[in-house]
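Hi Prof. W.,

I finally got the TetR family transcriptional regulator prediction working! I wasn't sure whether to trim anything, so I left the full sequence exactly as given:
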Amino acid sequence: MTGPDSPRRRSDVTRSAILEAARERFASDGYERATVRAIAHAADIDPSMVMRYYGSKEGLFAAVIDVELDFPDLSELDPDRLGVVLVTHFLELWERDTVLRTLLRVGVTNESGADRLRQVFTSQLVPAARAFVDDPADAERRAALVASQVLGMALVRYVLKFGPAADLSREDVISWLAPTVQRYITAPAP
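And this is what came out:
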């Protein structure tokens, strides 16, 4: 049975509705205050369906925060442009991907969220940094410094919405942040 009302089709629609509702609830309420019942209500389904598909609130949260930073191909990049490329890329991610904002919001209040945020940046940003540093053993420290800038800007711009940071044009954010990110990756260690 492969028609429009097949069980597979309904299952995909239900899963998508649950994930969308969960993203919104986790982003607005945080991990602790978001409930399976509220998520199910927002998805217009019975709470047992959330448990059926995801097993638990933790399982649902893990599905919601499946994040890929999707870096552009950096292999041919002029190293002097790395700061601009990375800051531009992160701005695009934060602006289009509510999952990252959800993960950041939850990560500052919940240890599971913080662990996942660390995993994303360690598994994806450190290898990107490693390609540009003189000492590959120093890539983790440099990637952490880059993360401090991009996560800090995301927090004040997209989560807390501090006026001056939220009101900066994209070009201004790039102009201010890119030289610092560039320095963190390519400048000699102090």
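The first helix runs from residue 7 to 33. Does that look reasonable to you?

Thanks,
D.
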